[in-house]
Design goal:
The structure holds 2 protein chains of 2 kinds.
Chain A (H helix, E strand, L loop, with lengths): L1 E9 L7 H18 L7 E6 L2 E9 L6 E9 L4 H11 L7 E5 L2 E10 L4 H15 L24 E8 L2 E2 L3 E2 L2 E4 L1 E3 L8 E3 L3 H10 L6 H18 L3 E2 L3 H8 L6 E6 L9 H12 L2 E4 L5 H10 L27 E9 L8 H26 L3 H6 L5 E3 L3 E2 H17 L8 H10 L7 H5 L6 H9 L4 H9 L14 H20 L13 H15 L5 H9 L4 H20 L5 H7 L1 E2 L2 E2 L3 H16 L1 H19 L4 H9 L4 H6 L1 H16 L8 H22 L3 H9 L2 H10 L7 H21 L8
Helix pairs in contact in A: 1-3, 5-6, 7-9, 11-12, 11-16, 12-15, 12-16, 14-15, 15-16, 16-17, 16-19, 17-19, 18-19, 20-21, 21-22, 21-27, 22-28, 22-29, 26-27, 26-28, 26-29
Chain B lengths: L8 H14 L3 E2 L26 E10 L15 E10 L5 H11 L9 E5 L2 E3 L4 E10 L2 E12 L2 E2 L5 E6 H9 L16 H19 L2 H20 L3 H20 L5 H33 L1 H4 L1
Parallel strand pairs in B: 1-2
Antiparallel strand pairs in B: 2-3, 3-9, 4-6, 5-6, 6-7, 7-8, 7-9
Helix pairs in contact in B: 5-6, 5-7, 6-7
Classes of the chains: A alpha+beta, B alpha+beta.
């Protein structure tokens, strides 16, 4: 058993691609070994900006020998056929043997495949891995690139180290031959480094100022940055994305603390943090005492913190780590250098300080310039910005959002609040898009509007609404509950959905350029968190100035699809939503009601009563289907001229159906019902009005409880009563009874849509 | 706080010329037209096409009308200098050559933190893109380092390496000055401000306030027409010059704020068509000769 080392050295690999590259290298390597029947022991993959390294433990020296058999032509076949078979199998004629195959003598070749040296196998695998490497973006370079077929890599590939045990694995790809030699740190050790084996690789590089293990570098940055912060009496604002990114930019990370002019602290802290993070990859710091106490403070003090969870894999371009408006920054930063400078980093810190100062003075300039123009005046410029070529300008969008926000509060009273504030906030909510600051940092949209609104003395409630109206932006983002914010946020999302659906721009597959799925999810979460009861037909009427049921239904269907995805994790099945999506014969345009019903259904069908009732329902439905018994609804529908099913769904016929059913049920049976039959009739007599009024009151749990009382009677009915009685009167009365049972269930939820 | 041993602005340029000349580069002069970047110089754009080796270095004055600040911003200028190096095919030691050039102008990589940070380059107007980095010196971007992959919509065969140094930034860094106008220009008392401050004031005013927009629109249309005229007569270099002219006039119109967001894309598309058409014609004119001289290119 031997260990294997592979290093692929190249010019600087983008930091954001390194994690993916490590995973791909391991996957391709394992794939090559598996194809050859070799199972490695532990496989470790490392990356630095200039190299990908893989160490595989416990590889065998050679693969196992195998013996394969090939069946050839039968005895007596023409010579040509037999010789052809020998050539194909790679054996001579005298190596063939005859065997009996079902009474027929047939030639067989036994091919002995000797084990292969793993070294040879690796020598073939390495070029294959390099050629197949799935970089997100790759390039050609150098003289070979006169052909577009030349090797592609993320940046020019410059060296390969491949050592099995102590032996070189000789291979070549794109003109680069494998060897024992690699390079150390670009500046600290610019000469060559000779590696002996997998065992001394990491330590030899360490001696040449390269920490090849990315996790070790991450740890050095995490701890080193906290240490320089503590030495200055400050604490670091932890940012795992930055830790990973800086580890991907350095082979020898050295965190250094610098200061900037205190005067820049006038600029909002989010702006400082963003420019430091995104443009310069710096950590920011707070004055507060280190660690434990800070965590405790932010947990208590938050309230309306701008929660956006950090995604370590996203790097500095991802969302910033969680911080609140009460974030108080110190006038300091930590940068991560890639060298141990002779002067302890003084010149490096000074250079970085200047760059940050230039960035911050730009930001302060924007902050000052923007505040000279009131938001209402900024908002006028939105008339010059196209929202979408078919949907007019952003100014027009803002008008629609303002009208709708006002309507939501004033007319719909969902949410309950001050409609004038909602209108004001909506009119100003996009004004920051034309500010210099948001032009520079688009991710600050909303936030800056809030700051500018407060700075010009606009009320807190309106400023908060401007700041937070994009929320919730993701599945983990907090959901607004302040009425003015809720109104603007809802109106904005509804306008996006209605506008694009109206011109038939819908998300398809993975394509959702206008983030309509996110808008839908945001709408759902706002409705859920605030207990809103909004019917889309009235929303569309208010938005469009006229009824448009088709549009309301289209958007509702989309919302319900998103609801199914959203609730999946909570165990609410999509078919339960399907069973709940109709209301009084039409698509329910209130997602809150569909959700409430689907949740009640989930609880009910999860109970014994529910499961048994569903079984009873299915049995009843199957019998009715088999007998083509349409019951009373069907009977009435057959009197119509249109499609019978459409007639059943016609809400105008509902009263007629109910009247007819009452009349029929009110009639005495012409025979004495069996006890179980009588019990079911009585149970229905009792359950139907209860379920009906519960549904009317939208108390779905109560409606389900009413249904649950039918469970025992329906079970007993099936046990004791013969539906298919010889007496035609009895038979049709019993089928009617089952139809009545089915209708009673349907009145609560459409069980026919429930799968399984 | 100026460093006494630091190179002056002009000595820095001379040091770069001497260095790249030693590496076998032609030392060219600026292209005598207004352009937004050194990449527009025919020595870069057109010479990046085709199989012939090409190594050149030059300073290119770069005009960015919208970056003008009337001489009041310490970093932003509507006219500044780029130092361009183009090496085709890209040599295997391009990074090392580049780092040596930094040492030549006084940047010690064991004292300063030099980093290659991902930054892919794309010029929609030239139909060009490449992969590379922005080079950081103590957190400041001092150079754009690119391996051209396509130019004018054509694959670069072979790939050229392009280095674009921001000369003012580098000089500010080396000399330790915070304001571009304080740069020591010649080592004998002239500052950058004495040479260029008045130009910045007047040109900013002209770019933003004075330039006759009707005349500019007219110029744009005439450049476009002339480009097509040149293409019709199979003189692609002349056509390309008109594409460069149109591109700059478009930038001026932008600075005057008379091109709406909606129109912007359409104007850029028109410039791109001219630039691509010129590259295409340039290729077409040379391709038989290239194919004869470089059989592996023809393949």
């Amino acid at each position: 058993m031997t260990d294997f080392l592979l290093e692929l050295r190249c010019e600087e690999i983008p930091a954001r691609m390194q994690a993916g590259a490590r995973a791909d290298l391991e996957k391709l390597f394992r794939g090559e070994l598996e194809a050859a029947g070799v199972t490695p022991g532990e496989v470790t993959v490392w990356s630095t900006p200039r190299r990908l390294a893989l160490i595989a433990r416990d590889l065998p020296e050679a693969t196992e020998a195998v013996s394969e058999e090939a069946k050839g032509p039968p005895e007596g076949a023409p010579d040509d056929a037999i010789e052809g078979f020998c050539r194909k199998a790679g054996v001579s004629r005298d190596q063939l043997e005859l065997r009996d195959v079902k009474g027929r003598m047939t030639w067989f070749a036994v091919i002995e495949k000797p084990g292969r040296a793993v070294k040879d196998l690796l020598a073939e695998a390495i070029p294959a891995i390099v050629r197949a490497f799935p970089w997100p973006k790759s390039m050609r370079w150098g003289a070979d690139s006169i052909s577009t077929e030349s090797l592609r890599w993320v940046r020019p590939l410059s060296g390969i180290v491949a050592i099995l045990g102590d032996d070189l694995v000789p291979c070549e790809v794109g003109g680069i031959a494998s060897g024992y030699v690699t390079k150390g740190h670009r500046f600290h050790h610019s000469g060559e480094v000779t590696i002996g084996s997998a065992a001394d690789y990491a330590e030899k590089l360490r001696a040449c100022h390269v920490i090849v293990d990315h996790e070790e570098r991450q740890d050095m940055i995490r701890k080193g940055a906290a240490k320089v912060a503590a030495e200055a009496g400050l604490s670091l604002v932890a940012d795992e994305g930055l830790v990973i990114e800086n580890a991907g930019l350095t082979e020898w990370p050295v965190p250094l603390l610098g200061r900037f002019d205190e005067a820049f602290l006038d600029v909002p802290p989010e702006v400082i943090q963003l420019t430091a993070r995104v443009n310069q990859k710096y950590f920011v710091l707070t004055d507060s005492p280190p660690l434990g106490e800070v965590a405790a403070q932010s947990a208590d003090g938050g309230g309306s913190g701008r929660a956006a969870p950090s995604d370590p894999a996203a790097g500095a371009s991802g969302p910033p780590p969680p911080e609140g408006e009460n974030l108080r920054l110190a006038n300091a930063f930590v940068c991560t250098a890639n060298i141990s400078a002779e002067d302890g980093g003084a010149a490096i810190v000074d250079g970085n300080r200047k760059v940050l100062a230039a960035r911050l003075s730009d930001a302060r300039f924007f902050w000052e310039q923007d505040r000279k123009v009131p938001l209402r005046k900024q908002a006028q410029k939105l008339d010059r910005i196209t929202f979408h070529e078919k949907l007019g300008t952003v100014g027009e969008k803002v008008d629609r959002v303002a009208k709708l926000a006002d309507w939501l509060v004033f007319d719909a009273k969902e949410p309950n609040g001050d409609h004038k504030l909602a209108r004001e906030a909506a009119e100003l909510c996009k004004a920051d898009l034309v500010t210099e600051m948001v032009g520079e940092f688009p991710e600050l949209q909303g936030l800056m509007g809030g700051y500018y609104a407060r700075a010009e003395g606009i009320s807190e409630e309106v400023a908060d609404a401007i700041r937070d109206h994009y929320k919730p932006a993701g599945a983990d983002d907090e959901v607004p509950i302040a009425p003015t914010t809720v109104a603007v946020s809802l109106a904005d999302k509804l306008d996006n959905l209605l506008s694009f659906f109206k011109i038939d721009i819908l998300p398809t597959g993975s394509k959702d350029p206008f983030a309509l799925r996110r808008a839908a999810l945001g709408y759902l979460r706002l409705v859920q968190a605030n207990g809103l009861k909004l019917s889309l037909d009235t929303v569309v009427h208010a938005w469009d100035g006229r009824p448009n049921v088709a549009l309301a239904e289209k958007v509702s269907a989309f919302l319900l699809d998103r609801l199914a995805v959203q609730l999946r994790d909570e165990g609410v099945r999509h078919d339960y939503i399907a069973a709940s999506r109709d209301w009084q014969g039409r698509m329910d345009l209130r997602v809150d009601r569909v959700e409430a019903r689907a949740r009640a259904l989930t609880d009910f069908l999860g109970s014994d009563d529910g499961a048994n009732l569903l079984a009873g329902y299915k049995r009843a439905a199957n019998i009715l289907k088999k007998e083509d018994w349409r019951g009373i609804e069907g009977e009435i529908s057959r009197t119509g001229e249109e499609d019978p099913l459409a007639m059943v769904d016609d809400p105008d016929l509902r009263a007629v159906v109910e009247a007819k059913m009452a009349e029929r049920h009110g009639k005495e049976l012409s025979y004495t019902p069996e006890p179980a039959e009588k019990a079911l009739i009585e149970a229905l007599d009792s359950a139907e009005p209860k379920a009906g009024s519960a549904i009317e009151a939208e108390d779905f749990a109560a409606a389900m409880t009413a249904l649950a009382s039918l469970r025992a009677p329906i079970d007993r009915f099936f046990d004791e009563v013969t539906v298919n009685a010889e007496d035609k009167t009895k038979r049709s009365a019993r089928l009617d009874l089952l139809a009545r049972f089915r209708a009673a269930v349907h009145n609560v939820a459409d069980f026919s849509r429930i799968e399984g | 706080m100026s460093r006494s041993d630091a190179l002056s602005f002009q000595d820095m340029i001379l040091a770069l010329h001497a260095f790249w000349s030693e590496q076998g580069c032609l030392i060219l002069q600026p292209y005598d037209m207004r352009m937004g970047a050194g990449t527009f110089h025919t020595a870069t754009t057109l010479r990046a096409l085709g199989p012939e080796p090409w190594n050149a270095a030059f300073v290119q004055p770069s005009r960015r009308p919208t970056d003008g600040r009337y001489g009041e911003n310490p970093n932003r200028l509507q006219h500044y200098y780029q130092y361009q190096v183009i090496l085709k095919p890209s040599p295997p030691d391009l990074q090392e050559l580049y780092l040596r050039s930094l040492e030549v102008i006084g940047i010690d990589p064991l004292k300063h933190d030099i980093r290659f940070v991902e930054d892919d380059w794309e010029s929609p107007t030239l139909g060009a893109w490449g992969l590379g980095w922005e080079v950081w010196c103590d957190g400041m971007e001092v150079t754009q380092f690119t391996y051209f992959q396509q130019m004018g919509g054509f694959d670069c065969r072979p790939v050229a390496g392009e280095l674009t140094y921001g000369l003012e930034r580098l000089a500010m860094y080396i000399q330790g000055v915070d304001n571009v106008y304080d740069l020591d220009f010649d080592g004998r008392g002239y500052t950058y401000g004495q040479v260029f401050l008045e130009n910045e004031k007047q040109m900013s005013k002209w770019n933003f306030e004075v330039a006759n927009t009707d005349a500019l629109f007219d110029l744009f249309n005439k450049a476009e027409a002339e480009c097509r005229n040149a293409l019709a007569h199979d003189v692609p270099i002349a056509a390309y010059e008109q594409a460069v002219e149109a591109s700059h006039v478009f930038n001026l119109l932008q600075a005057r704020g008379v091109i709406s967001v909606q129109e912007r894309a359409s104007y850029m598309g028109r410039v791109r068509d001219l630039a691509r058409g010129s590259c295409e014609a340039y290729m077409a004119k040379e391709k038989d000769r290239w194919a004869a001289e470089y059989p592996e290119w023809a393949a």
